[in-house]
Amino acid sequence: MKIFKKILIANRGEIAVRIIRSAKDLGITTVAIYSVADEEALHVEMADEAYCLGDSIELSETYLDIQKIIGIALETGSEAIHPGYGFLAENPELVAACEKSNIVFIGPNTRAIQLMGNKIESRKFVKELDIPMTEAKTGDKASLMLAAKEIPFPLLVKAAAGGGGKGMRIVHSEDELDEAIENTSREAKNYFSDGTVFVEKYVEEPRHIEIQVIGDDFGNVIHLFERECSIQRRYQKIIEESPSPTLTPEVREKMGAAAVRISKEIGYSSAGTVEFLVDKNLDFYFLEMNTRVQVEHPVTEMVTGVDIVREQILVAAGNKLSLEQNEISQNGHAIECRIYAEDPANNFLPSPGQMYFYNEPEGENIRVDSGIKGASIVQSFYDPLISKLVVWGEDREAARIKSITALKGYIIHGLKTNIPYLTELLRHKAYIENKITTKYCDEHTDDIV
Q: Crossing angle, helix 110-117 and helix 119-127, to 10 degrees?
């Protein structure tokens, strides 16, 4: 088995801690990077070596500074860089910089990142594979305005380079379309430095279901089944589960096959996720592909027993996948809850600051992924994610009940969190009866909060 001797983790928080754990299990020396705000962070403590990114707290001068990160990798003799998720994880410039410096990027190739990072180009590519997707219109503003004549309302105006719930607007009538195009384009320019937008048919009350894939450099691709990610607030996932309580075996098989085909056609090598919208008739439509490890990957690990980060590292080192498709199965049910420092009673405003006491739930089939240790500061400069609670049960109801109990096991002093909100979401009748869509939080938050 080929293995790296040393890797650099170009991230922070819980995902950096997660990567360090898998790397250490493989006997790999780990290098952490950190901003001055993260000097006492858990990932800095856990890594074998840690290097400060300078005196600034600006992202552009720390976790987004490609040349600085490459410089540390070269200085430390790191053979590879793992980008985690967010920050530079889907940035082709980091891949190019790694290649130029003879450093392995633990992720897919530049073509896959660029192709799937542009929603217009990825739609063109997937359409040629005869994989279902919603009707859409691309082109200049005049062309987009024609969508009102050609595609039934409601429509969705989307940024071509968008992500994270930004750069999207639902349009219910022709009168709204012009302004929606202008505003979405402006927002896309601000967030993604690319004002290109397109218009597609909006699927009402869909489920958001994604397929986890892993590929290697030998043309092998497998899927690790699906994750149901329909519980979202402002397009951000907050509860995920596997298996989906809705899919039939036939639809599950078709979605898995579609995800594998897309991945094989682009020569995908690494962990990735193909996302779909699923309507009330269980018809599914390609949404996008995320060319990185997902925040919610532990849900899949709990039901398949596969260490996704380990496989990702081994594939990047030049190994073939250690598993074949017929060796993968779903066992039981897992639910993940994202614990945020935010105040549900105050419109979910972030609640960063000093955490005076922190205690995590423990127990059989309970997993907590966190970048927090004891009394810590949740920084205002970064995502307010405190931890991810992942619980396994023999079936969905067992996992739901255990999740509620585990949520009560958190003791956090000094900050507001969304734990009470998550608890009530899991207790809600609509969740219990599996009457959930991506509108679930919008429809029930007033009742719950």
A: 100
CB 253 within 8 A of CB 177: no
Which whole-number Å values give the CA distances from 255 to 211, 248, 276, 359, in the listed order? 7, 11, 8, 39
Query: Taking the alpha carbons of 71, 74, 77, 82 in that order, is the dihedral positive or negative?
Result: positive
Distance CA 186, CA 178 (A): 13
Residues 1, 76 contacting (CB under 8 angstroms) = no
Helix residue ranges per DSSP H, 323-395: none
> Which residue has 């940024």 as its token pair?
159
Q: Are strands 349-350 and 357-359 parallel, antiparallel or unpaired?
A: unpaired
Tell me which residues are annotated as active site.
292
The overall average pLDDT reported for the chain is 95
What CATH number is attached to the domain comprising 299? 3.30.470.20
Neighbours of 218 (CB within 10 A): 11
pLDDT in tens, 238-273: 999 999 999 999 999 999 999 999 999 999 999 999
- Residue 224 — φ and ψ, nearest 5°? -110, 35
Q: Please state, as a whole number, how many other Cβ atoms lie within 10 Å of the Cβ of residue 145.
A: 16
- Of 10, 16, 113, the residue nearest 59 (C-alpha): 10
The enclosing H or E element of 62 equals none
Whether residues 256 and 374 fall in one domain? yes
The per-residue pLDDT for range 212-238, each reduced to its tens digit, is: 999 999 999 999 999 999 999 988 999
Query: Which of 172, 201, 230 is at the close of a domain?
Result: 201
Q: Which of 26, 22, 30, 24 is nearest to 76 (CA)?
A: 30
Distance separating alpha carbons of residues 234 and 352, to the nearest angstrom: 19
Q: What DSSP letter does each residue of 72-106 carry, written as one string?
A: HHHHHT-SEEE--SSTTTT-HHHHHHHHHTT-EES
| pTM (predicted TM-score) | 0.94
CATH number at residue 68: 3.40.50.20
Give the burial class of 190: count Cβ atoms within 10 A of its Cβ; 0-12 exposed, 13-18 middle, 19 or more buried.
Answer: exposed
Domain end, chosen from 149, 174, 201, is at 201
